[in-house]
Write a structure and sequence with these properties.
The complex is a heterodimer of chains A (about 160) and B (about 160).
Chain A: H1 2-6, H2 11-44, E1 54-62, E2 65-72, H3 76-79, E3 85-92, E4 95-99, E5 116-117, E6 122-129, E7 141-148, E8 153-159
Antiparallel strand pairs in A: 1-2, 2-6, 3-4, 3-5, 3-7, 4-6, 7-8
Chain B: H1 2-7, H2 12-51, E1 55-60, E2 65-70, E3 75-83, E4 88-92, E5 99-100, E6 105-112, E7 122-126, E8 131-136, E9 144-149
Parallel strand pairs in B: 6-8
Antiparallel strand pairs in B: 1-2, 2-6, 3-4, 3-5, 3-9, 7-8
Classes of the chains: A alpha+beta (about 160), B alpha+beta (about 160).
Chain lengths: ~160, ~160
């Protein structure tokens, strides 16, 4: 036994092999972790854009203010999983709307981006036109597009009463 | 020749390494592809449900009442929007759990009553008579009514 410990022949190849295995395992662990986190962030981010389902349920032009109400139909009951979304921008006839900082009747103003539209939720956005020269006169029909942070676009038309 | 080839172990590690690398790459792409496939299928299922969940609303502004019928499959109502000359108001129905059976007509009656504190309309569901009652201060003011179900279909 004593002879075995004092004999140092072939120790170097053993250490080299152990080191090689350790380096390989560390490398594979880092690579695997990166791949998993990359695919997870893809699934949670832009990959989920295909699962977003939004309905523009009402658009009300009230003077200079435009009240847009949306419904997120991507619920577990409807399609097997809940998918929340964030509205990035709302466009009317290609012109981006801006937030209206005033408050409406007993409802708080909701800012774009910082309000999560949870699955099965109805959310109202109170906006105004970014250009005063662009008017929505009554009896006219306009296009509305809602863009989400993940990159989905939802289009509809509305009439100004 | 074959015996010699099998005995020669030079380059075996490189082959094993390459195979492992390809297997890892395949694992990654298969994982993302299968997930994307499943996600697309879920959305397609929702589109099919939406296509089969047609509704019809007939509104008679003179009588302040409307009829609603599920034309395809049974639906669960989510909201009723009421448009007057100068206002767009809604009545939340999701907590009322209104299941409309396909083909059966549900009546919407608007009676005179105050709005709720949040500015929305009070709605009550009478399951026995299949009737939704909305409370709005001046029922004759209503010019349009639209209904949205939990699948996101709006009529």
């Amino acid at each position: 036994m004593k002879k075995l410990f004092t004999n140092r022949k072939a120790v170097s190849p053993v250490i080299a092999t152990v080191l090689m295995i350790m380096v390989t395992m560390a490398g594979m662990t880092i690579l695997f972790g990166f791949v998993i986190s990359y695919s997870d962030s893809y699934k949670a981010g832009i990959g989920t854009s295909v699962m977003e389902s939004l309905t523009i349920e009402d658009v009300w032009v009230n003077g200079a203010s435009i009240q847009v109400t949306i419904y997120n139909a991507a619920t577990k009951a409807n399609m097997g999983s809940d998918v929340d979304l964030n509205v990035a921008t709302i466009y009317v006839d290609g012109l981006a709307l801006i937030n209206n900082d005033q408050t409406s009747i007993n409802r708080d103003t909701i800012n774009f981006n910082d309000k999560l539209v949870g699955s099965g939720e109805h959310v109202m956005f109170i906006c105004k036109l970014s250009s005063a020269s662009f008017l929505l006169s009554s009896g006219t029909t306009h296009d509305i597009t809602i863009a989400t942070i993940r990159g989905s676009n939802f289009k509809d038309q509305f009439n100004v009463s | 020749m074959l015996k010699r080839l099998l005995k020669n172990r030079k380059g075996v590690a490189e082959v094993i390494g390459s195979v492992m690398f390809i297997v890892i790459l395949l694992f990654f792409f298969t994982n993302v592809y299968l997930w994307h496939d499943a996600a697309t299928k879920q959305v397609n299922d929702l589109y099919v449900k939406k296509m089969n969940a047609g509704m019809e609303v007939t509104f008679d502004s003179g009588s302040s009442s409307a009829n609603i019928t599920a034309k395809g499959s049974a639906v669960v109502l989510s909201r009723i929007w009421v448009v007057t000359g100068n206002q767009h108001l809604y009545a939340d129905l999701q907590d009322r759990n209104i299941h409309l059976v396909a083909g059966r007509v549900a009546k919407i009656n608007v009676v005179s009553g105050a709005l709720k504190s949040d500015g929305s309309i009070q709605a009550d569901w009478d399951n026995l008579n299949y009737r939704i009652t909305l409370q709005y201060p001046i029922p004759n003011e209503i010019t349009m009514m639209s209904v949205i179900n939990t699948l996101g279909v709006i009529v």
